[in-house]
Amino acid sequence: MIPREPTGGHGVALHACGIVDAPPAAVWPVVRDCEKWDQYMPGVGSSKLQKRTGNTAICEVIVDLPYPFSDLRSVASIVEIERPDGGFSRRSLFLEGDYKHNNGYWIVLPYEDGKKTLLVYDIDFNPDMAVPDFLLRSLQSRTAPDIFSAIRERVKMCSASAETCKAE
Q1: How far is it, in rounded angstroms, from Cα 109 to Cα 23?
Q2: Which tens digits make up the pLDDT trace of 39-75?
Q3: How many domains does one find in the chain?
Q4: What is the pTM of this model?
Q5: For residue 72, which of 168, 140, 26 has the smallest C-alpha distance?
Q6: C-alpha–C-alpha distance, residues 138 and 153, integer Å
Q7: Which of 67, 125, 134, 163 could lock 102 by a disulfide, CB 3.0 to 4.6 Å apart?
Q8: Is position 72 within any domain?
Q9: Alpha-carbon distance values, 150 to 70, 86, 88, 130, 142 (Å)
């Protein structure tokens, strides 16, 4: 995980990478399925796919924050691309919600001749609430490794029962 300067100097921005022991075609449905993130992504209280048109999806995610903080809602436009190298990407552009900004991307890349996946995650967000940046950065830095672990576990589960994990 590499912290970086957030947009406008406030909030949290980071870049993280991890290896998943499965090919990109098995990882991609898990990463792109925002409708089921509340089932396995750490901190996601609810999530839903509002609409999908071609390679663009509108996703709503509510992040469940601990008391005394209010949950954070975000609606984003997601542009998904199948890459010529056998990988995939999804770029998230904030539309509305409880943030000043909340943008990011996932890149799913073939690794070790496509037998594994190099998963790249980048996020830049600033919630529209009175929380010190150092606290946000601390929470995100502790959560980032859990996100990769959750995706790895979900991919394993989906390999065992592919029908329950197919994204629209």
Answers
A1: 9
A2: 999 989 999 999 999 999 999 999 988 788 889 999 9
A3: 1
A4: 0.90
A5: 140
A6: 24
A7: 125
A8: yes
A9: 24, 23, 19, 29, 13
